[in-house]
Amino acid sequence: MAFDVSGLTDYVNQQSTELIGRAYFEAKSADYFQVQAGIKSSEAIQLLALAAVPQADTACAFNASGTTTLTQRNIVVGAVKYQDTLCMKTLRAKWTQILLREGSNADSEVNDAMGAAISDQLIKLVKEHVEVLDWQGDTTSGNAYLSKYDGLIKIIDAASPIDGNTGSITSGTGITTGASGNSDTIVNAMAAARTAAVKAQSDCVVFCGTDFFDGYVSTLLAKNFYHIDPTSFANYEMNIPTTNVKIVGVNGLVGTNRLFLGSQDNFYLGVDMLNEEEEFKMWYSQDDDNVKYSIKFKRGVQVAYPSQIVEFELA
Q1: Which of 13, 175, 237, 312: disulfide with 259, CB 3.0–4.6 Å?
Q2: 3-state helix/strand/coil string of the chain
Q3: pTM value?
Q4: Nearest to 269 by CA among 259, 261, 277
């Protein structure tokens, strides 16, 4: 006789208590920014520009000539929070009951494993969100994920950066890769478009999306630049051949077809307290028998001298 198991549902082992979160990307861009802390709402970046004129030293006289100019650019931070209420009783009827504490008076509390998993995932999610916000934020967007503060794209576009699209590449032509690609030409043209003062800086960086970076690397290889050390592509960072510029792929620019070049000293991140977005609070509230969590932080970005930024945008 054969077994007839058509009346049974397939067995699924649900006894594992290991909670696996999805993959997140880090807020990498901020690693290259100058951090200005202690900002509650808005604070100025104090800028000083000195113009001095050489004079002939042929007489006993003191002749004032020159100008010392003080200006400001303001970092405006947005106050951001993540909060939620979790009713642990919802987990009683599912396999998740084994994640609850023992006893009717305690099973509304989150146990150590679940608390750690939730806090770890939320902190990673916040870092993913601020990476995009730092570049694509727009307080007028109406998008809950982008409206908390203005990002660098909006800030730089509103100023007077250097046009790095010297080849007038259009959206019709697009960014191309491979042996006949133009992604390497785009990067080289941006490096060449720098002013002499910016070229003299030793910490120049081109920020691009990781999608552009992948295409750029494939283009270099397709054009037989095999003398480039392939290990230099690690972590989406490499030096641009024949220049003193580093190209860095960041997730905040993915899908934008935008690139920005400047000295690291020119990019600013404003916060109220360093690493505040990593301060996670979770507690059991006896008032309503729920578990609650909260993260609060302030954050904003700015550039000191937009005129020293080279940007690329399709024409």
Answers
A1: 312
A2: CCCCCCCCCCCCCCCCCCCCCCCCCCCCHHHHCEEECCCCCEEEEEEEEEEECCCCCCCCCCCCCEEEEEEEEEEECEEEEEEEEECHHHHCCCHHHHHECCCCCCCCCECHHHHHHHHHHHHHHHHHHHHHHHHHCCCCCCCCCCCCCCCHHHHHHCCCCEECCCCCCCCCCCCCCCCCCCHHHHHHHHHHCCCHHHHCCCCEEEEEEHHHHHHHHHHHHHCCCCCCCHHHHHHHEEECCCCCCEEEEEHHHCCCCCEEEEEHHHEEEEECCCCHHHCCEEEEECCCCEEEEEEEEEEEEEECCHHHCEEECCC
A3: 0.85
A4: 277
Residue identified by tokens 């990067």 is 187
Check residue 42 and give its pLDDT.
Answer: 92
For 248, the token pair is 């860095």
Q: Do 19 and 117 contact (CB within 8 A), yes or no?
A: yes
Distance CA 171, CA 166 (A): 14
Instruction: Return the structure tokens found at 106.
Output: 């305690």
User: Which residues face 303 on adjacent strands?
Assistant: 267
The span from the CA of 34 to the CA of 36, in Å, is 7
Q: Is the pLDDT of residue 263 over 90?
A: yes
Query: Which range is least confidently modeled, 47-61, 136-150, 185-199?
Result: 47-61
Angle between helices 183-192 and 210-222 (to 10 degrees): 100
